Amino acid sequence: MPRISATKQAILAAALELGALHGISGTTMDEVAERAGVAKGSVYYNFASKDGLFGELLTSGVSSLSRTLREARLSATGFASIEAMVAGMLTLIADNRALAKLMAAEIFRTDRAWQETMVSLRREALSEIEAALAPLVPRDTSESTRLLMAGGIFGAVLMGGLEWLLFSPGTPAAEVSAALLFTFSGKLDAGSPSAA
Amino acid sequence: MPRISATKQAILAAALELGALHGISGTTMDEVAERAGVAKGSVYYNFASKDGLFGELLTSGVSSLSRTLREARLSATGFASIEAMVAGMLTLIADNRALAKLMAAEIFRTDRAWQETMVSLRREALSEIEAALAPLVPRDTSESTRLLMAGGIFGAVLMGGLEWLLFSPGTPAAEVSAALLFTFSGKLDAGSPSAA
Question: Among residues B53, B62, B60, which one has the least CA distance to residue B24?
């Protein structure tokens, strides 16, 4: 990772907090400077524009999502790779709650300056899930169908994870992971459930 | 449903289009009036504020989601009720793409005037999924765990559905539904897949 200055880091952190709370359109560079405790000139010295600032936040967020997913995928095989990905994503969301909220809000926006970059980075992240799915689905499943499944799994973990952090933060991460994985385990469709 | 005037309908439709494109903070009442082809006074005659306008859009959207989910749940039993809910939600998303985008962006915002209403309405919608899950999960599963599972299923369909509409709109709805349900069917965890 490239080294970034303490000032730049403070600006990124302030932008993230404000963006997660008020949205990107509802956040101004003045507010970012104030929250970061730096002069406005310093914000513009580090980022040419608000678009540049939030674009960098979001693209680096999706890149670290992809890295987490790839590591999880390579750490196991078969359905265990899906389990590792769900657990890895949940940890990432819990450790970066503001970023997860911002990503949930931004992921389907189509009017942003960084749209092209985001579409290709999101595709990269989904491709990691898709690669883990490939050996688990019928051989004639098309890549676009596998990507839809990957999008569904990603959505389940993102929404389930945010639901957890906002509405039942006392639940241990392992229980959340188990609850989400239960829905992918086939036990829902297994007829009468066992008393676990 | 209460009858609403053609003007009010035009304002709501314009607000929805603009909000889905530029976000709520990025949309002004002036722009809503212009897009709806009505005078600005007419917008304020119908809605006291932008918050009131978007609050009405979102709460009525979540209410119709709950209705759809309840009807689907009552139309079948066992895992088939989950299948009916996924299909019903996908149809709703496809028929109301702008609303689905807006809801995805707003669902975890915690600084909105309508926040309280949205939290309780979202809970109502998730409770429908939770009620369908109850007979399918181990008897000692807590309500909060079932709600997390419900949030995951909701997230999978919302994100999978938007992924579909934005990136592979040519895929028939039934295939999308089948792809998402496949991940909940347990076939992922079934070892070597059959050639479907």
Answer: B53
pLDDT at A189 over 70: no
pLDDT tens digits, A100-136: 888 888 877 777 887 888 888 889 999 999 999 998 8
Q: Which of B20, B148, B43, B157 is nearest to A181 (CA)?
A: B148
- Cβ distance B108 to A106 less than 8 Å, yes or no, reads no
Q: Cβ–Cβ of B193/A167 closer than 8 Å?
A: no
Asked whether the beta carbons of residue A155 and residue B151 sit closer than 8 angstroms, the reply is: no
pLDDT band at B139 (very low <50, low <70, confident <90, very high): confident
Query: Which of A85, A162, A182, A187 best tests the B interface by mutation, with the highest count of B CBs <10 A?
Result: A182
Per the model's pLDDT, the better-predicted residue between A188 and A137 turns out to be A137
**CATH architecture group of domain A49-186:** Orthogonal Bundle (1.10)
pLDDT digits (tens, 9 = 90+) for B3-28: 678 999 999 999 999 998 888 888 99
CATH superfamily of A1-47: Homeodomain-like (1.10.10.60)
Three-state secondary structure of B127-192: HHHHHHHHHHCCCCCCHHHHHHHHHHHHHHHHHHHHHHHHHCCCCCHHHHHHHHHHHHCCHHHCCC
CATH of region B49-187 = 1.10.357.10
- Measured CA to CA, the distance from residue A57 to residue A68 in angstroms comes to 17
Q: Which residues of A touch B191 (CB under 8 A)?
A: 78
Q: Is the fold of B1-47 the same as that of B49-187? A: no
Cβ <8 Å between B180 and A148: yes
- The domain ranges of chain B are 1-47, 49-187
* A residues 74-113 closer than 8 Å to B (CB): 78-79, 82, 101, 104-111
Mutate to test the interface with A, among B101, B142, B175, B188 (most CBs of A within 10 A): B188
